[in-house]
Design brief:
The protein is α+β, with helices and mostly antiparallel strands and 106 residues long. It has one domain.
Amino acid sequence: MSINLVIYKLMCEYEKIKEKELKARGNILACYNKVCVKQFDNLTTRYDAHVCTTCKNYCYLSYISCGICKRKGCTHHITICDCLGAQMYLMIRFTEKVRVEIIGFK
């Protein structure tokens, strides 16, 4: 398999992951009245530091967190707790600017 084909396939998979992630983030922002978007405090945090309380999957790229009960959840779950009127946080590992710097294109 040529290197160009491998790169092409990797870029196609990257685009799928990116689109799925951005759609999930958009759903969170549309669902809650009070969402504060924050970048992870430590970008080198191990991948297993943020685990979804619902499905137990690792939340590597982003997660939502409740300001009251502090539960964390995948952006795919939308609701992670029953706290009413809680400040929700959308925690993201990479901002768009940082992502572009790492990958090298939009």
